[in-house]
Amino acid sequence: MAELTASQAPLAPIPARTQLLAVAWLRWRIFANGFSRRRPATTRQVVSLAFLILLRIIVWPFLAFAVIGPVFGSGFFAWELVAHHHAQNLPELLAGIALLWQFVAVNGLSIAASLSGFDPASLLRFPLRFGRYFVLRTMIGFLTPSTIVGCLALLAAAVGIGIARPALALPALLVLTVYAWTNIFLTRMIGAWMERWLANRRFREIFGMLMAFLVVGFQFLNLQRPSRAPGASSSWLLRFLRVSHGYLHWLPPGFASDAILKSVHPFAAVAPFLGLLVSTVLFAAVFGIRLHKQFLGEYLSESVGRRGTASAASRVKTAAPQAVAVSAPAPPQAARPAIPPVIAACLRKEWFTLRSNSAQLLALLYPLAILVILNRGVFSQHPSYLLPGALAYVLAGLLASLYNIFGADGLGVQVYLLAPVRLRDVIVAKNLLSLALILVEAGLAWIVVSMLAHAPISQAMQVSTLLWIVFVIAANLSLGTFRSIQSPRKFVPGKMPQRRGVPGNRTSSLLVLLVLFGSLLLQVPVALLSRHFGNPWLAAWIFAPIAAVAVLAYALLLRNADRLILARRDLLAEELCKV
Amino acid sequence: MTTPAIDTTALTRRFGDFTAVQDVNLRVDTGQFFGFLGPNGAGKSTTIKMLTGLLAPTSGSIRILGRDLESNSAEIKRQIGVVPEGMALFGRLTASEYLRFVGRMYGLDRATTLQRTQELLEFMQLADEQKKLITDFSHGMQKKLAMAAAVIHGPRVLFLDEPFEGVDAVAAGTLKAMLQRMIVRGATVFLTSHVLEIVERLCTHIAIIHRGQLVAQGSLEDLRAGAGRVGAAGSVQEAAPAGRPRSLEEIFLEIVGTDRDGNPAVTAPEQELSWLS
Predict the structure, then answer these.
(1) Does some domain include residue A368?
(2) Which of A235, A266, A295 is the last residue of a domain?
(3) Which chain A residues have a beta carbon less than 8 Å from that of B265?
(4) What pLDDT, on the 0 to 100 scale, is given for residue B47?
(5) pLDDT of A164-189, one tens digit each?
(6) Which of A265, A284, A498, B266 is 20 to 30 A off residue A199, Cα-Cα?
(7) Residue A474 lies in a domain
(8) How far B161 CA lies from chain A's nearest CA (Å)?
(9) Minimal Cα distance from B272: which residue of A?
């Protein structure tokens, strides 16, 4: 075995290259191993792999468009602005690239972290000097979509400027390279501070809601489209751009733009170029301050917080006198409870879990806000579809949560498996709370739609929608519960999925999507049939029997729930109890 | 007098208004097999995190191998090995890839890294699992790998947070033998464990932390003799007259069962939970 204790002689310094290459190699191996099989190949695994390849063939061209679009757009607009004497608008283009860069980076933070399974702060346990840690943290993320697209877009802009005015080609390349570093450090700065703030659960929830409402806000702004009528006022976007133009000159996009355009008179270009350099250094310094705190051993988690001073013993002492002897006969029950105790206990537990996640509760309001937008958008042309369309929209998210009802329990699933309870009762409790949420959301959406509708909704439409909802809920409860037992996947609410589920999950995901969206979209062909035959009650006649079948299927599933769970208990424990 | 491997002065860590570790003065001499004990939530892991530079102390100082940790963290980290509480492995690497990465991060050349990786994998009986990702390892296998990573660079001080938790008896025996060998070669091992029998068998010196404060420190013999209790003012009690030799468990329960003034801090649960009788 290797000599384990090092000699007492002073150690030679570790070359920076060795450590930097080691981390680059680590990242590469994590990426490459992401494609490797985790378990021996089985037929299901091969099917799953084939599906994955197919999915990538479909998805990658879209991703390619998402890259090519901004890159060609930047090149073209840069050429257009400089060639056609609108160079004064170059700061807006550079600001647009920066905004896109930061937006993609911020939104990709949690996704990247969860997919790579790599926390850069874990490097702190190795013998790194701060300078090297800073370089590593800057390097990590060079191959993220935001950096690749941002750098390519800036390169394209430099090429566009160079084609329009060849004299500006080299200065544009130099300045936009510095501008790329400005954006890289800005991204790192935002990322590092976000990591600090997001360590606090309450902040995470507030941030999630802010992002959601920001998206909704943009949708509302989009409604204020400029009127094409002559003399109508211009859009909010153009007004905003006009106002912001003056300020942009004092920000990095303005500095970069001025440094490029004034480069024909080098002395005039020095000041804006210095401004750009100072901005870059400033972002790097603020990023560095955060990293340095981390480097010194900052504690971000809030798991150690306030604790009561009372000892465990004293807690036992106060609780004990009220306890009842196990061996003693059970006290006579006054009355049979309305809800069986196991279901009541599980319901209470589910409610406490939901209550502690205020983001999830607030997210119930988010689809309702979107309804107002949909009413002014797509449904303004088809008001008769407003009610089913609105309900389909608001319920999609809640219905999707039915497909992994044990996921959030994690290790806690063992309590259900060990306790002397019927597992059917546990499922009923979980489904009851989901059902309550779905009904509240549907009820609110119904009220909103009734207020928004320009004409009263026909009785036939209301009845058929009601029957359709019964079908949708029962069908998704049935398949959702079945899949929750067959393919459980651990997840922490508020975080991206951190591990892959059981083999074959991807294949069954396709079936889930088909049932989920198929049941929601079933309204469309049925409505068309009703219209074709001129019978508004036809939809109700169609939905009534299939709703009954779906309810029966759910009842059948509940009847067999214990048997199903016991047959899959090893998988439930294995998947949900992984640390 | 030799330079202690670990030396802390008034080490304190607060989280908001909660004090996790308070005024801890630890001294671990080079070559000692040191057991750091305490009940759940006593401050053991917080102390280890501070000693390994992963958590900054609120106040106090830490010297490892005679050097201040704060100002020499990179140099000190080269000479220590750590098996942290959560093991901190990269799940999407294979064991061999992980050890090669760790070796390079500690500045070992490529050939040495490869040689030690192979030796360690064989020693830890992980050589047959070369193609398996760490995420698919059992808990015990992950623990062995974390231990291998902690020693690949030949550390002079080894910090182990619950190293035997979830490890089977055969593997535990292998690990213990390896640790004993390191001690013979002059390394220092700082270990926390809830399994007092293991600590009693391996460690020569013990410290006990309770509610963030060091309540006992000394050799196992001293503690058995009733000495080593840290008084309210930080003074260490001398040995009492010889009596019946006591087990570490008895000593531990006696010490954490009373507060610093000798009053009982823990009530025997069976006296209160009458319904269990």
Answers:
(1) yes
(2) A295
(3) 311, 313
(4) 93
(5) 999 999 999 999 999 999 999 999 99
(6) A284
(7) yes
(8) 14
(9) A320
Q: Which of A13, A118, A128 has its CB closest to that of B90?
A: A118
Question: In chain A, how many domains are there?
Answer: 2
Q: Write out residues 9-38 of B within 8 Å (CB-CB) of A.
A: 15-18, 20
Is B266 an 8 Å CB contact of chain A? yes
Same domain, A408 and A276: no
Q: Do A423 and A533 belong to one domain?
A: yes
Would strands B188-192 and B157-161 be described as parallel, antiparallel, or unpaired? parallel
Question: Using CB atoms, which residue from A12, A19, A328 is nearest to B105?
Answer: A19
Residues 112-131 of B with CB under 8 A from A: 115-116, 119-120, 123
CA atoms of A223 and A240, how far apart (whole Å): 16
What is the rounded distance in angstroms from the CA atom of residue B258 to the CA atom of residue B232?
13
CA distance A322 to B117: 58
pLDDT of A501 strictly over 60: no
Range of the domain at A536: 341-576
CA gap A449, A386 in Å, rounded: 7
Q: How far apart are CA A96 and CA A371, in angstroms?
A: 29
> Are A504 and A572 found together in one domain?
yes
- Tokens matching residue A133: 């840690």
Mutation for B interface: A5, A309, A326, most B CBs within 10 A: A5
Q: Residue A412 — pLDDT band, cuts 50, 70, 90?
A: confident
d(CA A178, CA A328): 79
Nearest to B222 by CA among B211, B234, B236, B233: B236
Among the partner residues B90, B91, B185, nearest to A4 by beta-carbon distance: B185
How far is Cα B75 from Cα A67, in angstroms, rounded to an integer?
44
Residue ranges of domains in chain B, CATH in brackets: 6-90+154-168+188-256 (3.40.50.300)
Using the beta-carbon criterion (under 8 Å), do B135 and A499 form an inter-chain contact? yes
Q: Do A259 and A351 share a domain, yes or no?
A: no
Residues A502, A368: one domain?
yes
Q: Measured between alpha carbons, how far is A366 from A497 in angstroms, rounded to an integer?
A: 22
Q: Is the ipTM of this complex over 0.85?
A: no
Per-residue pLDDT for A578 more than 70?
A: no
Contact A148, A156 (CB under 8 A): no
Indicate whether A207 and A277 sit together in one domain.
yes
SS3 string of A41-91? Answer: CCHHHHHHHHHHHHHHHHHHHHHHHHHHHHHHHHHHHHHHHHHCCCHHHHH
Residues A250, A397, single domain; the answer is: no
Tell whether A307 lies on the interface with B, counting CB pairs under 8 A: yes
Does residue A173 lie within any of the structural domains?
Answer: yes
Q: Would you list the DSSP string of A251-282?
A: SHHHHHHHHHHTTTSHHHHHHHHHHHHHHHHH
Cross-chain Cβ contact B92/A34 below 8 Å: yes
CB pairs under 8 A between A and B: 165
Q: CB B6: neighbour CB atoms within 10 A?
A: 23
Same domain for A159 and A84: yes
Determine the Cα–Cα distance for residues A427 and B178; give it in Å rounded to an integer: 49
CB atoms within 10 A of CB A527: 21
Does some domain include residue A9? Answer: no
pTM of the predicted model over 0.90:
no
Question: Mind listing the pLDDT tens digit for each residue in B234-273?
Answer: 556 655 555 566 788 888 888 887 655 556 555 555 566 7
* 3-state helix vs strand vs coil in chain A, percent to 5: 75, 0, 25
CA distance A414 to chain B (A): 18
Q: Which of A395, A386, A539 is nearest to A464 (CA)?
A: A539
Reported as a single tens digit per residue, the pLDDT across A1-28 is 444 444 455 678 888 888 989 998 888 8
Given the structure tokens 């999507």, which residue do they identify? A513
Residues recorded for chain B: 277
Q: How far is CA B148 from CA A117, B68, B141, B158, in A?
A: 21, 27, 10, 12
